[in-house]
Amino acid sequence: MNWRAELKELRLREGLSQEMGGADKVKRQHDSGRLTVHERINKLVDTGSFHETGAIAGSAIYDEHNELASFTPSNCVFGRACIDGRPIVVVGDDFTVRGGSADASIYEKPLMAEQMAAKFRLPIVRIIEGSGGGGSVKTIETKGRANLPGGVSTSLGFHYTTANIAAVPVVGLGLGSVAGLGAARLAASHYSVMTKSSAVFVAGPPVVARVGQSLSKQELGGWEIQTRSGAVDHAVDTEEEAFACARRFLSYLPSSVHELPPKLASDDEPERRDEGLMHAIPKDRRKVYKVRPIIEAVVDRGSFFEMGTMFGRSIVTGLARLDGRAVAVMASDPYFYGGSWTATACQKLVRFVDLAETFHLPVVYLMDCPGFLIGLEAERAATIRHGVRAMAAINQTTVPWCTVIIRNCFGVAGAAHQPAGRLALRYAWLSGYWGSLPLEGGIEAAYRAEIDAAPDPVAKLSEIEQRLNKLRSPFRTAEAFWVEEIIDPRETRPLICEFARLSDKLITPVPSAFPMRP
Amino acid sequence: MTDVPVLSELNAVVLKIEVALGDRVREGDTLIVLESMKMEIPVAAPGDGTVTAILVKERQVVEEGQKLAALGTAEIGDVQHDQPMTP
User: Fold this and answer.
1) Which residue range is the domain that position B45 belongs to?
2) In Å, how far is B26's CA from the nearest CA of chain A?
3) Which of A230, A354, A357, A420 is the most exposed place for a label (fewest CB within 10 A)?
4) CB of A472 closer than 8 Å to CB of A433
5) Which domains does chain A possess?
């Protein structure tokens, strides 16, 4: 006697689950340029590392002898796997089974994926297509009653959506049409990517048509809409690129808040001094410069991984390595409002700084901030409230912080260049230029009487401007020790690499005092 | 060859128009200079091509997403992110 017959049935059922929604549905998925959920998982993770949980869960039909006649797996596939040899949880929607909708999912499966990530302290990657396990109107008929959102026994999923963001790295990949609960699961992540052929929305075109907007999927929730709105961080051409982004993002982070970010050996000399930095900043203050090459010049070669490029664009945010250590890098982009803090840039900054605090990443800020964006539109966007919120986020950090002032530092937004009330490292480039407020417009306000009384007000204005400009040399500020150091910009990399090494002693695998929010 | 719109990435004032209708331009060439927060912000050609439309005037206020010009071009690159550090 042995268990061969039972083993045969197990293998049969496992085999049936691999067929997903059937050959026709799989073909339809492929014909539209999309991979199946199993193909996606296999391309995302280390070869052969996926171990599925609940593979044979689904709905079966039995014949008159009670023998298995046919089987359709649940449209939620999840389990453990490895990325770069490190364990993760992966959970994916199978669109070939009833479009990924709730009537073919098993509520406990996506829930257990989230629980597994939380309890085993593992990063989770959500591969989302369809409504992400959300219901459709049809569910009312199949269940015979209407679901109460967040009602008895259905709110646990949302508990983990909130809890995991404060505990483990969460990556969302939107591959296809992503709506409702699916969109929520995508957005409730530390980093989200969609393919350019995908669309993400709270409600799709047919529902939106009922409120009077006739739009295609792409017009409503295509990548240009969702990356510029900040709902999704990044868009790529192919699903393979999306998987590469997920793997790269996770490479900088610890597996949970209870660990430290992995340190890698670096083959880039920490003492490397890039000559280009000497002429990176134009002498004409009205001229802009490209900030990304400056970031590339100071971090470990090839290590800069930008996140949220299309949103809040006056601040560039991304992960990088300094002498092999993972750090969070922020830099101003003068191409967008001269690097001013806009309401959206402030929202981006809050989320990014919270990510750094959550996962124990030291922060390096290459700042060139002429202040908050000004003008009527900026006031309407509540720039000042988003601004003080960004300042509060910076002030609430405890991770090591280093600011390099590469040009402007003005106003309240300028003041928020390092956490208030604790020691951070700060360096100013030779091009540093600062003040409580800019001279332009500031002189007219402060010297009104003197200018009005002058026989030639224009000449008087220019005379005052010259007078004040003489006093604003950064060396005079350093003379009073109002700024600690003015540096040759070529010294930046050696100094921030030293900062990263010093940070080794300061970062501890202790969860942040406050849980971050999506 | 396709006609590619050149959009403003921000709310700004048109400071200078550096090209004329029919000009041949190379990817990365400055087409228009915008002014915002007292800074001069160049709008670069997204690819090699010919200027087929100029839709704004100097001193005109423009909004984020507004079409500034059009370029008849064969290939489009990512100018904002690909250029080297320049003096």
Assistant:
1) 2-76
2) 19
3) A420
4) yes
5) 4-251 (3.90.226.10), 275-437+473-503 (3.90.226.10)
Q: Provide the pLDDT for residue A436.
A: 80
Here the tokens at position A145 are 């009653």
Q: What is the DSSP letter of A164?
A: H
Counting the structural domains of chain B, the total is 1
Provide the pairing of β-strand A363-369 with B12-17: unpaired
> What does the DSSP assignment read for A81-101?
EEETTEEEEEEEE-TTTGGG-
- Touching check for A334 and chain B: CB below 8 Å? yes
CA separation for the pair A127, A118 (Å, rounded): 17
Asked if residue B61 is part of any domain, the answer here is yes
Interface test with B, best of A292, A433, A440 (most B CBs within 10 A): A292
**B85 in a domain, yes or no?**
no
Summary mean pLDDT of chain A? 94
Say if B36 falls within a structural domain: yes
CA-to-CA distance for A330 and A324, rounded, in angstroms?
Answer: 18
**What does the block give as tokens for B51?**
């200027």
Residues 6+ apart with CB under 8 A from A60: A68, A69, A70, A71, A72
Residues near A249 by Cβ (< 8 Å), separated by ≥ 6? Answer: A169, A171, A190, A191, A305, A307, A319
Query: Domain with B9 in it: what CATH number?
Result: 2.40.50.100
CA–CA distances in Å: residue B15 to residues A49, A84, A449, A465:
57, 50, 31, 23
The tokens for A387 are 């601004």
For residue B80, give the nearest of B4, B6, B3, B2 by alpha carbon: B6
Structure tokens at A214: 């006739």
CB contacts of B87 in chain A (<8 Å) are: 279-280, 282
Which of B36, B80, B85 is opposite residue A280, by nearest beta carbon?
B85
Nearest Cα to Cα of residue A348 among A320, A373, A318, A326: A318
Q: Are A117 and A83 in contact (CB under 8 A)?
A: no
ipTM of the complex, rounded to two decimals: 0.85
For chains A and B, count residue pairs whose Cβ atoms are closer than 8 Å.
Answer: 56
Q: pLDDT tens for residues B41-57?
A: 999 998 899 999 999 99
Residue A223 confidence class, pLDDT cut points 50, 70, 90: very high
A435 in Cβ contact with A471 (< 8 Å): no
Contacts of A450 (CB under 8 A, 6+ apart): A460, A464
Beta partners for A363?
Answer: A328, A401
Question: B81 lies in a domain?
Answer: no
- Say how many residues make up chain B: 87
pTM over 0.90: yes
